[in-house]
């Protein structure tokens, strides 16, 4: 295991990799700039390992209104047990990700406590928003941080084994709740590295999801934002927006133990363990944002 490396301000340095890029990483240096620099990171789907090498065991939300006359999904839908993905109402931007106006329609879930629901740290709050189309599930993590620790090396496409040993944002998705021990794991780091896994009892496989991601690190504001685009056909055989999925969201931060392991829905294990599907919340798919009352 290599020594942790803290992110330093980067200016005009591009990541090298395969020409078929699937991700863009923007790093915003300490002195505020009018625009962020773009750093391509690239995608490969290959073998990986999961967060804790053992068989899986058995919200706060905010509300903001758009002045255009619609509002995001509010507290009575997005709550401590249910996250809501809103159908994306417009075409994506030039990079294939939702526009800011689309993200504003998605009600956020927020969390800053640890995996036991204790030791809340507002300086490490995580906000998650979700959008969907028939072809893609989009997620946006906005993470406050104290110190960032990342791996300095990855595959040429950005894929990194053991990514959870450094700072990450994670989502566990369970499209079929009747299969309690089967779910899909996606992780992204502040410098755009990634990992995705297909989890089943006693098994973990390369998901090869074809995910895309975009990361913006703002060192002045001490936040990083990660957007992920997950192809629906790698999550379910046939997407049904009326179906209810199970989901949980997590963050890990810190170079050495005790690290900060936070969860939207606490897993309540004695030691940090995210692989507790019994603790997952519900994911619902809304056809549109709610009209202004």
Essential attributes:
35% strand; 293 residues; mainly beta; disordered N terminus; Immunoglobulin-like; 16-stranded mixed β-sheet
Q: Tell me the distance between the termini.
A: 54 Å
Shape: globular
Beta-strand fraction estimate: 35-45%
Instruction: Provide the helix percentage.
Output: under 10%
Question: Number of DSSP helices?
Answer: 1
Radius of gyration from the alpha-carbon trace, in angstroms: 18 Å
- The poorly predicted ranges are 1-21, 29-77
Instruction: Give a short account of the largest sheet.
Output: 16 strands, mixed
The tally of strands reads: 18
Number of domains: 1
CATH level 1 name: Mainly Beta
CATH architecture: Sandwich
Structure, described:
The protein is mainly β and 293 residues long. The chain contains 1 helix and 18 strands. It has a single domain, classed as Immunoglobulin-like, CATH 2.60.40.1190.
Summarize the structure.
With 293 residues, this protein is mostly beta strands. The protein is built from one helix and 18 strands.
List the helices and strands and how they pair.
Layout: E1 5-6, E2 21-28, E3 37-42, E4 60-61, E5 82-87, H1 100-103, E6 109-111, E7 126-132, E8 136-144, E9 149-150, E10 168-174, E11 183-188, E12 194-200, E13 203-206, E14 212-218, E15 223-231, E16 245-253, E17 260-263, E18 281-286
Parallel strand pairs: 2-14, 5-7, 5-18
Antiparallel strand pairs: 1-9, 2-3, 4-6, 6-7, 7-8, 8-15, 10-11, 10-16, 11-12, 12-13, 14-15, 16-17, 16-18
């Amino acid at each position: 295991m290599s020594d942790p490396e803290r992110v330093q301000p980067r200016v005009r340095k591009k990541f090298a990799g395969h020409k078929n890029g699937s991700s863009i990483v923007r790093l915003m240096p300490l002195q505020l700039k009018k625009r962020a620099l773009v750093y391509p990171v690239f995608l490969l789907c290959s073998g990986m390992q999961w967060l804790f090498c053992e068989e899986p065991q058995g919200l706060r939300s905010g509300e903001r209104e758009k002045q255009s006359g619609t509002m995001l999904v509010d507290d009575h839908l997005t709550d401590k047990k249910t996250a809501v993905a809103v159908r994306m109402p417009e075409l994506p931007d030039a990079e294939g990700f939702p526009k800011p106006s689309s993200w504003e329609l998605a009600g956020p879930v927020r969390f800053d406590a640890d995996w036991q629901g204790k030791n809340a740290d507002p300086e490490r709050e995580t906000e998650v928003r979700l959008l969907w189309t028939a072809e893609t599930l989009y997620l946006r993590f906005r993470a406050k941080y104290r110190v960032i620790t990342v791996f300095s090396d990855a595959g040429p496409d950005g894929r990194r084994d053991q990514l959870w040993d450094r700072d990450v944002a994670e989502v566990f998705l369970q499209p079929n709740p009747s299969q309690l021990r089967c779910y899909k794991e996606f992780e992204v780091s502040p410098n755009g590295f990634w990992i995705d896994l297909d989890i089943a009892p006693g098994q973990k496989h390369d998901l090869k999801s074809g995910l895309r991601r975009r990361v913006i690190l703002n060192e002045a504001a001490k936040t990083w934002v990660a957007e992920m685009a997950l192809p629906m056909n790698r999550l379910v055989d046939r997407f049904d927006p009326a179906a209810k999925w199970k989901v949980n969201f997590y963050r890990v931060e810190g170079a050495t133990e005790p690290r900060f392991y936070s969860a939207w829905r606490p897993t309540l294990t004695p030691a940090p363990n995210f692989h507790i599907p019994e603790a997952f919340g519900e994911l619902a798919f809304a056809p549109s944002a709610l009209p202004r009352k």
